[in-house]
Amino acid sequence: MLSDWELWACANQVMKAQGDKAAHYVAEQIGALALAGDAEGIKIWQAIAHRITELSDQVGPTTRQ
Asked: Rounded CA gap, 54 and 65, in Å?
């Protein structure tokens, strides 16, 4: 398993690289790992997904006027 710091770094990189499509990208990764039977890989990507959600909540949309 990756360290907490590494998971945050991965989440940040996925968000930068994928933008609005980050959640879709993570879902694709998890799906591919599920088909491959890689339970550890799935856990890692789920942890990254959780951090992406947290980062997205912090960076959320600006206030509408």
From this structure: 25
From CA 60, how far away is CA 65, in angstroms rounded? 15
Residue whose pair of structure tokens reads 């879709």 in the numeric block: 24
- pLDDT tens-digit map of 16-58: 999 999 999 999 999 999 999 999 999 999 999 999 999 988 7
User: Quick check: helix, strand or coil at residue 56?
Assistant: helix
61 CB neighbour count, 10 Å cutoff:
6
52 sits in the region (left: phi over 0; alpha: psi -120 to 50; else beta) called alpha
Closest CA to 11 of 33, 29, 32: 29
User: What pTM, to 2 d.p., does this model score?
Assistant: 0.85
